[in-house]
Amino acid sequence: MSSPSSPSSAFLAGRIFLPFALGYYLSYLLRTVNAVISPDLTGELGLSAADLGLLTSTYFFAFGLAQIPVGIALDRFGPRRVEAVLLLITGLGAVLFATGDGLPTLASARGLIGLGVSACLMGGLKGFTLWFPREKLASMTGYIMSCGALGAVTASAPLEALLPFIGWRGAFWAVAALSVGSAALIFFSMPDKEGSHGSETLQEALRGVREVLVAREFWGFSGQSAFFTGGFMALQGLWAVPWLMEVNGYSRALAADHLFWLNIGMLAGQLSIGAWATPLARRGFTPLHMMQVGLFLSMVVLGLILVEVGPTLLLWCVLGYVSATGAQMYGVVAGLFPMKLSGRVTTCINLMAFVGAFAVQWGLGGLLDVLRASGMDGAQSLRVAFMILLAAQVASFVPLARAGRYKPWQDG
Question: What's the pTM?
Answer without folding.
Answer: 0.74
